[in-house]
Amino acid sequence: MRLPALFLALITTGDVTAFAPFAFHRSRRVFALRSTVSAASPEKVIVLEDADAVSKAVQARVEAAAQAAIAVRGHFALAIPGGSILKMLAGTKPSWSSKCTIVYVNHKCVPMDDAHLATHAKAGALFLDAWAGVDVVTMTGSGDSTMEATKYTEAIDARIEAGKIPTTEIDGMTWPKFDLSLIGVGDDGHVGSLYPDRDEVTVKDRWVLPVDMKTPGSITLSLPVMATSSEIVIAACGVSDKYPQGKSAGMVRAIEGAETLSSFPACGLRETATWIIDKAAASKLSSQYQP
């Protein structure tokens, strides 16, 4: 199994010691856990009219990434989250689905057919059941997050050995490199199941982590795995009576706020992700991000 070696660096300032996050593979910059992360480049933020436009843009990104990956190596490795992004893929039925492997960015430790809690079951109902021949990396369905994280790591490694998921080497360490990762951001800044002020955000020597913050527990891809994808798309859109401005407050913090990895984990993807959001989500961003 090609699991990464220890990928931790220590930063010591006075009597305060923190783990330093990984070096992003494109920029090679290293961010300290408690250091403010630079704002995202305006060129990386795409503001569209509404939720429907965002969904269509996400679907177009998936199609383009699939076509490119299959043309080069005959297979497409896609990472998807739960939540609203699943709905953006609803009704799709790609011709290349038999040449695609899907990995979940995060998933609750529940039976895979749990219609209320399992992302896999929800994805099946929305679109996956129509993706003929797709290879989905699933969990065993237990409530043991540690065991599930280990098994999920092994399942990803098996797909690497089969040539379905490419890898990248960073400073002599091997990481899965998805062709495209779709990522959602919670109002508190969590990505996958990486939540603010939690130790999981700082882990840099594993691909998949157990998270027992809630019941049931969950597993999540680590931040280095998310960030080493060939393409990362973070999508946010939609309004409601409760949130008439959609995810605008969260997007300010995610894209340009004075945040650290600890305070708002999503900011760790600022340099590598393309942000596709609707006007409601962008409404509180500064003028440089406005269409």
Describe the structure.
The termini are far apart. The strands form four sheets. Strands 3-14-13-10-4-5-7 form a seven-stranded parallel β-sheet, with helices on both faces. The protein contains seven helices and 14 strands. The radius of gyration is 18 Å and the shape is globular. By secondary structure, it is an alpha/beta fold.
Describe the secondary-structure layout.
Elements (H helix, E strand, L loop, with lengths): L8 E5 L2 E5 L24 E4 L2 H23 L2 E5 L3 H5 L11 E5 L1 E3 L10 H8 L8 E3 L7 H17 L5 E4 L2 E4 L3 E4 L24 E4 L6 E4 L1 H5 L4 E5 L11 H8 L17 E6 H4 L9
Parallel strand pairs: 3-14, 4-5, 4-10, 5-7, 10-13, 13-14
Antiparallel strand pairs: 1-2, 6-12, 8-9, 11-12
Can you give the helix content as a percent range? Answer: 10-25%
Topology order in helix (H) and strand (E) letters: EEEHEHEEHEHEEEEEHEHEH
Q: Number of helical segments? A: 7
Gross morphology is globular
Please, what is the average pLDDT? 88
Q: What distance lies between the first and last C-alpha atoms, to the nearest angstrom?
A: 46 Å
Structural class: alpha/beta
Strand content: 15-25%
Brief account:
The chain has 291 residues and is an alpha/beta fold. The protein contains seven helices and 14 strands.
Keywords:
single chain; alpha/beta
